Amino acid sequence: MYPDKNISSFNCTTCNLSKMMKTLFKGTFPQPNRKVETIHMDLCRPISPESISGKKYFLQIVDGFSHIVWIFFLTNKSECKDYIKSHINKVQRQTNSKVANLILDNGSEFKNTDLQNFFKYKGINHLTSAPYTPEQNPFSKRGNQTTVNKSRSLLLNSGLDLSYWAEAANTAIYLENLTLHKSPNFETPFSKRFNKKPSLKFLHPFGCEAIYLDKFSKNKFSSRGVEGVFLGYGEGHQMFRILDLETGKVKTTHHVKFNDFLFPNKSQKNLDQNTEYFVVSGSLDIPTNSQTNCLDSPETQNDLELSPNDQRKDDENQNVTTNAL
Q1: What is the CATH number of domain 38-194?
Q2: Which of 1, 89, 115, 124 has the fewest CB atoms lying closer than 10 Å?
Q3: Splitting the chain (325 residues) into consecutive groups of 10 residues, what average pLDDT does each group show?
Q4: Residue 93 three-state SS
Q5: Residues sharing a CB contact under 8 Å with residue 233, sequence separation 6 or more, in sequence order
Q6: CATH 3.30.420.10: which residues of the chain?
């Protein structure tokens, strides 16, 4: 019908308008050669309900080399710039390495003048992804969705209210940093960052029963322990975050006993149905907790003492991801 037309190269405007789709993203993302050389960041959109401390957003930061993840919880998007500047200064001091590339999206929270001037002062190459192209910032974009999914699972399994999403997200990130990553050499992000294997001896199921020491008991015959729920890991040396069931306040303490198979916020019916799941979770090389020490069995004072070297190692292990919620 059209002898002078090359059908293979025929371009129809109407067809393009009606069938337009996203262009396939080809190739792989460049692999950094050193720690914090390339950092990916993304801000999760507003979350409802607010967390128990009034947070609405979380900022997720990923090291492209080690794949270690940090998470920060924000009340307003305007807080982003302060967390970014503080974090860049911190990781550069810790690793003795300069941040060369920073990959963000085109969100308004990343485009303020103060932040742009900071990048110029530090000599950081600020790269932005195109609109609707998460493939150009794969670690953070995909990571945000993964964090939300894991947090949702932790909340459902624990029976806790959705307002504890920040506690669940903080725990999800901590566990992710201790999980084997296929790229590049099937290592954990923690191992890649600190050049040693992480300690898994302090892990417990999120939302399980936690009895912590009451240092201010009324008299010698009062209960020495307070019933609570395990909410994750606190900052500092071997610390747990515990929800006091009586007051509703979150306590950070070292002296805790855990029942990994009892979830106070779940109904007994749901607990019976999921007993097999809990047993499997408890056997994942995690008989105790990952960032903090616990007193699951009576121990002497000498048993609890750590050498200065062991204490320093445990401090590094605990401070990887925990941030104020």
Answers
A1: 3.30.420.10
A2: 1
A3: 60 74 60 88 90 94 92 93 94 93 82 90 83 59 82 94 95 93 82 88 93 78 86 85 93 92 76 39 32 32 40 51 51
A4: helix
A5: 170, 171, 174, 202, 239, 240, 241, 289, 290, 291, 292, 318, 322
A6: 38-194
